[in-house]
Amino acid sequence: MEPVSFLARGRIAVAVIDHPPVNALAHAVRAGLTDALQRLAADAELAALVIVCRGRTFCAGADVREFGKPFKDPQLGEVVERAEASTKPVVAAMHGTAFGGGLELALSCHFRVALRETRLGLPEVKLGIIPGATGTQRLPRLVPVRSALTMIAEGKDIGAPEALRLGLIDEIIEGDLELGAVAFAERLLAKGRAPRRTSELPAVLDEPAVFDEFTTMLAKKQRGFLAPLEAVKAVRMAYEVPFAEGVRRENEMCMRLLRGAQSKAQRHAFAIEREVARVPGLSPDTVPREIATAAVVGTGVMGRGIAVCFANAGIPVRMFAHKAESAAAAMAAIAKLYAGMVGRGAIAQGESGRRLALVTSTLSYEDLKSADIVVEAIAEDLAAKTQVFARLGAVCRPGAILTSNTSFLDLRALAEASGRPADVAGMHFFNPAHAMRLLELVRTPATAADVAATLMKLGKRLGKVAVVVGAGEGFVANRMLSRRSREALFMLEEGAEPSQVDRALTQFGFPLGPFAVQDLAGLDVVLATRRARLSSLTTRERAADLLEQLNALGRLGQKSGAGWYGYDTERSATPDALVSELIARHSLARGIARRAIADEEILERCLYAMINEGARLIEAGVVTRAHEIDVIWLHGLGFPAYHGGPMYYADQLGLAKVRERLLRYAEEVGAQYFTPAPLLERLALAGRGFYEPG
């Protein structure tokens, strides 16, 4: 079938786009639309055209598979120019999502209608570019400047009711979209409405100071990203230069960004997020188990956050606590969280009540027996977790999925303790669980295929980016993170300051450096994790006991007002001379001569230690591809999207360079820490990368 079919509904023509899965504006679609517009112009019996899509969505944007290749004519710019130039009215009828090029197509039409549930947006900045087919010049002619900047420079989408209020669409269709759009077109003709061309509308600047405001805000909020600031400049042009000139400059800016390293990295991040949804070795025909009810064992910060995740998804969840006081405290904390969301306008009061009603507590394991899935979220103590899984295995109904939120403990031991290892997997949420998008799903060799399929489906339902990994010490996120933390501690011993290490990592693009992150989490929590791993640490790692020393002084991070940094009442951090003196005494006592350490060395040792461990994870089969590693670091640990993830970044550097630096640090720091992983060694010598392993 052709991706665009041309139908006649009396004097109204209908161009139907049917190009699964998301009706992307590929070359064949663009050619089909061009043909439809030509047929409309040539047929005297036809008085108007409606553009509508089959499937679950309107055109969701450009075909990203064409990026990086020569664009075939007709390009989208030509299509939108033809649509607007039509002497007969053209109506865009939208449903699902009208994003990117899809919305630009709609903006070039003379009128726009949509189903109530439709979302509209120009999210190109998330791919490191700006709209390149007149979007930055048309949208400001329809909506206030602040709304245009929010949609273009921040990449935020809006719903159809908001779009109607702003003037972006002309009518919300109730019922059948195509029939409603045809009826809308008939009414236009009955009223004698001529085509209304967006390019001919004046761009009225209602808030002149808003450009400086957005520039300042985005420079801080999107630090390091190029596209958002370019988007502000492009929108500003809509008010300062003629339409045709603005369109020409917009396209030049878009193409320049598209060819740049940031956009390539962000498009890579976009592609692999979708790729990890296809789990290697898991048949797409695997039938997931039904999840109607959930339970959480543990009422601490993580347990509460996980319960909120289920409630937010509309899944009733019961929290198990050993003490009534713990249960009451957890319920109060969840109620406070929802009250805060209402206060910020994130949800309505009624919705808060509905979600809160889905969360209950119990002091009896027997009350968990009907749950379809249980998440254990107690402290990182293998013996205690083993007892929980033994109890769950005995109590829960056959077929219930038993999961642990452990971040590094042996999941296989928990699976065996349950007596039903096929039902056991890991669900590693990141703190705060209700806000962080990443969900690390861990399967053991015994985990049933339908359990993995169920958790992937559940992760999507919870609004998470779910990544399946294998069982192993620290899984992926924390195992690689521990290598970065190790080098950060070693460099403190050797002469660096916490603020210098943090600065080097934040200048690279991380939102926080490793020591600021630890202060945020709580140094007592970080120390508990370190102690649980103590037996697996090397002699030098155990001796780097600065965490123990800070805890002994009561410096627990932000919550105590002092940790690696000192904090004021607003929790603003300041380097602390006491910490510098403590580190210097520690180095002297250990016989380590302190020296000046360059920021470049800090960055290389932290990043290359992670990359090297990533290579080991691939070789060990904990992950089968570099994709999983990059998605985990992008969504769970703040790796800057404009660098594409640690393994992609390594490929851009060239593995030969990474190998050379690893060998240097192996001599300077120790072979046990920096000897290149066998996979990295092989790829580097072959001139290949993690994404082209051969």
Account of the protein in words:
- The chain contains 30 helices and 19 strands.
- The strands form four sheets. The chain has an eight-stranded mixed beta sheet, with helices on both faces. A six-stranded mixed beta sheet has the order 1-2-3-4-6-9, sandwiched between helices.
- α2 (76-85) links the parallel β3 and β4 (90-94).
Question: Which key features would you list for this structure?
Answer:
8-stranded mixed β-sheet; N-(1-d-carboxylethyl)-l-norvaline Dehydrogenase, domain 2; 6-stranded mixed β-sheet; 694 residues; alpha/beta; globular; Rossmann fold; 2-enoyl-CoA Hydratase, Chain A, domain 1
Amount of helix: 40-55%
- Shape by Cα distribution: globular
CATH architecture of the largest domain: Alpha-Beta Complex
CATH-defined fold name of the largest domain: 2-enoyl-CoA Hydratase, Chain A, domain 1
Low-confidence stretches: none
CATH structural class of the largest domain: Alpha Beta
**CATH homologous superfamily name of the largest domain?**
2-enoyl-CoA Hydratase, Chain A, domain 1
Quaternary: single chain
Topology, please?
Blueprint: E1 4-9, E2 12-17, H1 27-42, E3 48-53, H2 76-85, E4 90-94, E5 97-99, H3 101-108, E6 111-115, E7 119-121, H4 135-138, H5 145-152, E8 158-159, H6 160-166, E9 171-173, H7 177-190, H8 210-221, H9 227-240, H10 243-259, H11 261-275, E10 294-297, H12 301-312, E11 317-320, H13 324-343, H14 349-357, E12 359-362, E13 373-376, H15 382-395, E14 401-404, H16 411-418, E15 424-429, E16 438-443, H17 449-461, E17 465-470, H18 477-494, H19 498-508, H20 514-521, H21 523-532, H22 539-543, H23 546-552, E18 565-567, E19 573-575, H24 577-589, H25 599-620, H26 626-636, H27 646-653, H28 655-668, H29 671-674, H30 678-685
Parallel strand pairs: 2-3, 3-4, 4-6, 5-7, 6-9, 10-11, 10-13, 11-12, 13-14, 14-15, 16-17
Antiparallel strand pairs: 1-2, 7-8, 15-16, 18-19
Helix pairs in contact: 1-2, 2-3, 5-9, 8-9, 9-10, 11-26, 12-13, 13-14, 15-16, 18-25, 19-25, 21-23, 25-28, 27-28, 28-30
